[in-house]
């Protein structure tokens, strides 16, 4: 009897070693190596895929038709995808449990089937009756949506040859397995082999494949890192499951920008698009402003968003004051505090500083620097910023206010929501006419503080 060969595979990055080691030398995680049986066989999955012997042609001779992109029925989702689902692409949708991934995909499937497209929905984690119950709740009723409760990928491939759908949905990739790999479903080997087979199906049969993936407790996609490199598009569905707002963000897209976001609102009958996110994020704002509360204009792709930033500064008796940043980068907060201490003279060495972005938005652009600095300074001085004022600008280490991109679009968004005043960097060129809003240009941080303060808080 031949000796069975085994290998140890890291479940986080896919690193392989012939013997067990406690710490993975590739990703540095402890206890992630799992023993798997090493089987060297030719995969039947690749043999079942029909190879398309298309001729070689010049790039100028390739014609792109309007039907190459399939609209999802959600403008917010199409915005993130770069205009729609591209035929023959492999899209990975990841998110926390219970965030609404299956709800979004099932609603999208219903919208696509209404266009006359045939879609196969493979539910590897649920039965067909469970999917039907969700479809009734979401008002998804169409004759082109086929549901297949199956975890064997070879059986799914056989159904593709029979139904010949235009879109394939896998819910989820961690539950799909192939008998050619002896390891259990969800392991690195299974995920890598199944994703590779799905990529061959998408490219050779020109089928759009949508794969739902889980995330780990650290917020990363479960499975090997190579999974993100194999697919065409990686989309994160994020948000607080205890709130109704949901954000759709692309971190990889071969067919569009990765800076776009889509905003949804979770209601009783599923997900609703939010066409005006700024109004959603600010609808709970109190007109009676308090110290440390400012409105900033951030930019996400081609969209300008107005969000509220709050800061809390309080004296502490501990030798090391706390710095807590929610929604912004921690090191960025430390840099802004250093500028306030050196250029403005605020003594924050014995004060705790907390900064929070309302609505669960993650801001990573420098245009929010001025708003964060003004929130901290006004809370420290116990004064309030005008409630009808929006703050835009980047702060340099010398205390100067630098220009930001898409400034006109940010000002127009503030004007549309009824703001009366905008504090922006001092520009070398004149802004175009047509703004019905007071624009105050400030060269330095000290000037911005003087311009935004309305009165002493009492």
Please state roughly what percent of the residues sit in beta strands, choosing from under 5%, 5-15%, 15-25%, 25-35%, 35-45% or over 45%: 25-35%
What is the typical, i.e. mean, pLDDT? Answer: 86
Assembly level: single chain
- Helix residue percentage: 25-40%
Weakly predicted, low-confidence segments: 41-50
Approximate shape: globular
- Biggest sheet descriptor: 9 strands, mixed
Which value, in Å, is the CA radius of gyration? 26 Å
β-strand number: 25
Distance between the termini: 86 Å
Spatial sequence of strands, sheet with the most strands: 8-7-9-10-6-11-12-13-14
Instruction: Give the structural class.
Output: alpha/beta
The total count of helices amounts to 12
Overview of this protein structure:
- It is a single chain.
- The chain is an alpha/beta fold.
- Helices cover 26% and strands 27% of the residues.
- The chain has helices at residues 44-48, 75-81, 101-113, 128-137, 153-163, 188-205, 226-230, 277-282, 330-344, 369-381, 407-416, 445-452, and strands at residues 6-10, 16-17, 33-37, 69-70, 85-86, 90-95, 119-123, 145-148, 167-171, 208-213, 233-238, 245-253, 261-267, 270-273, 293-300, 303-315, 323-326, 351-357, 383-385, 389-391, 394-395, 401-402, 421-425, 438-442, 453-456.
- The chain has a nine-stranded mixed β-sheet with strand order 8-7-9-10-6-11-12-13-14, sandwiched between helices. It has a seven-stranded mixed β-sheet with strand order 17-18-16-15-20-23-24. Strands 2-1-3 form a three-stranded antiparallel β-sheet, with no helix packed on it.
- α10 crosses α12.
- Mean pLDDT is 86; it is low at 41-50.
């Amino acid at each position: 009897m031949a000796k069975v060969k085994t290998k140890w595979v890291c479940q986080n990055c896919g690193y392989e070693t012939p013997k067990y080691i406690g710490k993975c030398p590739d990703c540095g995680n402890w206890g992630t190596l799992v023993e798997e049986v090493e089987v060297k066989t030719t995969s039947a999955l690749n043999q079942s895929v029909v190879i398309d012997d298309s001729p070689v042609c010049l790039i100028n001779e390739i014609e792109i038709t309007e039907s190459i992109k399939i609209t999802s029925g959600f403008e917010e989702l199409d915005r993130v995808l770069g205009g729609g689902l591209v035929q023959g692409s492999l899209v990975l949708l990841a998110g926390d449990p219970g965030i609404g991934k299956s709800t979004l995909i099932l609603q999208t499937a219903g919208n696509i089937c209404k266009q006359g497209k045939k879609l196969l929905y493979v539910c590897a984690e649920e039965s067909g009756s469970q999917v039907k119950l969700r479809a009734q709740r979401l008002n998804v009723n169409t004759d082109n949506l086929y549901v297949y409760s199956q975890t064997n990928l070879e059986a799914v491939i056989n159904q593709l040859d029979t139904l010949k759908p235009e879109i394939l949905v896998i819910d989820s990739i961690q539950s799909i397995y192939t008998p050619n790999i002896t390891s259990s479903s969800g392991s690195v080997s299974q995920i890598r082999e199944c994703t590779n087979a799905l990529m061959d199906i998408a490219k050779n049969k020109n089928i759009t494949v949508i794969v739902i993936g889980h995330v780990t407790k650290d917020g990363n996609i479960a499975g090997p890192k190579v999974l993100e490199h194999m697919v065409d598009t990686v989309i994160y569905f994020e948000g607080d499951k205890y709130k109704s707002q949901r954000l759709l963000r692309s971190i990889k897209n071969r067919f569009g920008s990765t800076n776009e976001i889509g905003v949804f609102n979770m209601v009783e009958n599923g997900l609703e698009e939010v066409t005006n996110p700024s109004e959603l994020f600010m609808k709970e704002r109190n007109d009676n402003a308090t110290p440390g509360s400012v409105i900033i204009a951030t930019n996400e792709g081609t969209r300008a968003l107005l969000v509220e930033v709050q800061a809390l500064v309080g004296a502490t008796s501990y030798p090391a004051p706390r710095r807590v940043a929610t929604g912004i980068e921690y090191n960025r907060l430390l840099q802004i505090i250093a500028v306030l201490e050196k250029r403005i003279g605020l003594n924050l060495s014995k004060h705790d500083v907390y900064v929070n972005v309302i609505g669960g938005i993650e801001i990573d652009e420098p245009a929010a620097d001025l708003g964060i600095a003004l929130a901290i300074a006004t809370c420290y001085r116990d004064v309030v910023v005008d409630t009808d004022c929006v703050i835009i600008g980047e702060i340099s280490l010398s205390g100067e206010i630098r220009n930001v991109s898409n400034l006109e679009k940010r000002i127009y968004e503030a004007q549309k929501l009824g703001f009366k005043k905008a504090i922006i960097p001092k520009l070398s060129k004149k802004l175009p006419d047509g703004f019905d809003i007071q624009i105050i240009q400030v060269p330095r941080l000290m000037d911005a503080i003087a311009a935004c303060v309305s009165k002493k808080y009492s």
